[in-house]
Design a protein that fits this description.
By secondary structure, the protein is an all-alpha fold.
């Protein structure tokens, strides 16, 4: 597992990829990922945090739209 592969995995997880998708994107097998996680357990937390990024970005967008649109804001408040 190279630093470049770890970066590719992190990039994939940051846009919501599954383990399988991230492995494909990084050019590794799932077993390689799981072996890496076994020897670097802190990566599991990093992976799970990155997987939340798309959800948080979507929430941020919704809140911004509600805040910026007076009519939508009134509907939301009711």
């Amino acid at each position: 597992m190279t630093e470049a592969v770890v970066k590719k995995l992190e990039e994939a997880f940051a846009f919501g990829a599954t383990d399988e998708e991230a492995c494909f994107y990084g050019g590794i097998t799932k077993q390689t990922l799981y072996n890496y996680q076994k020897s670097h357990p802190e990566f599991i937390d990093r992976k799970e945090a990155l997987k939340q990024r798309p959800i948080l970005l979507a929430r941020q967008k919704v809140v911004a739209e509600i805040t910026d649109d007076a009519e939508l804001r009134r509907e939301y408040e009711n």
